[in-house]
Predict the 3D structure of the following.
Amino acid sequence: MESCVELPMDKTSPLPIPDDAVIFSMIQPTGVIHLGNFLGAINTWKQINDKKRPDQKIIYGIADLHALTIPKKDYSSQLKTNRMEAIATLLSCGINPQVSTINFQSMVGGYHTELFWYLSCLAPLGYLNRMTQWKDKKSGDQTKERLGLFAYPVLQAADIMIYKGTHVPVGDDQSQHLELTRYLSERFNAMYNVDYFPSAKTLYSKSKKIASLSNPSKKMSKSSEDRLSMIYVTDSPESIREKIKKAKTDSISDTFYFDPVERPGVSNLLEIVSGFQQKTMKEVEKDVSQLHDYRSLKEYVSDVIIESLAPIRSNYTKYTNDKSYLESVIQQGYESSQEIAHKNLTDIKKIIGLSNDF
Ligand code: TRP
């Protein structure tokens, strides 16, 4: 069975996700998201949300426990704000809490971390040691290295498995963590001779890897110091125009086409347009074929972004001013995820031999 499924990115195609699927994903609370996060992940979440079939379950979470894996001093008030902003962002981007459950990982944290422990007892150190994110993020100084960062992927596997998630929409950078999840499901099933955990499939969309506006050979990234390199989904129209105007392009200024190798800057702008309009690159190229100078191209791109982000921006203001609504969404999300997690953890403990019905 294929362990990865590609999602079509246009508005009309049905999604290749079965009726009984449990779709699960999470993002880290890093505050307001930028175009790269939106077109790379949240837009796919929204598509799945919009095309949900009656028996499918969707749970989207804010990975606030994972946010602690890189300890920061005096972080608590910022984490509090980031968590709130993350929920407001998901709602503003069109995730509908009547359709998809939205939760905080830490609210159902007891279930996630308990399963994390059971999986830790099955996860080989060598496997975790080979994870690219661990290799990239670890400092190399054993006296400073934290267990949490090392164990991060096992908690991620537990997040998915506690809901018996079957389909997980994530970006490329998460594919190794999903492989580990499948590995741990198999190990568990084999160890206890059960067929309990499904093998979670990675759902990826050919969605968009958006590059930095100022240096299109790099990913658009929050950690960049350069404010012109990224557009936040809540940026004002003026700020969007300014950033697109200053975006790095090239010297061919009379025709615009997609060629990420030779023309990374222009291709990135076209990629953004294609992501927002959910059009193929051919269609986008056709739309811009009558533009013959950078000024018009950049105006066109700015218009598309501004128009697409307008509802997100106004929703965002509305939701961040309505804390009691946000709290009700979270409470409702907590209740429905807690119910599933509780039931599953009870089954899991029974399988392991930890239930008290002697
Ligand atoms: N590691 C993911 C990221 O940084 C976030 C995450 C945590 C996640 N738990 C998850 C994603 C479970 C999918 C499923 O983007």
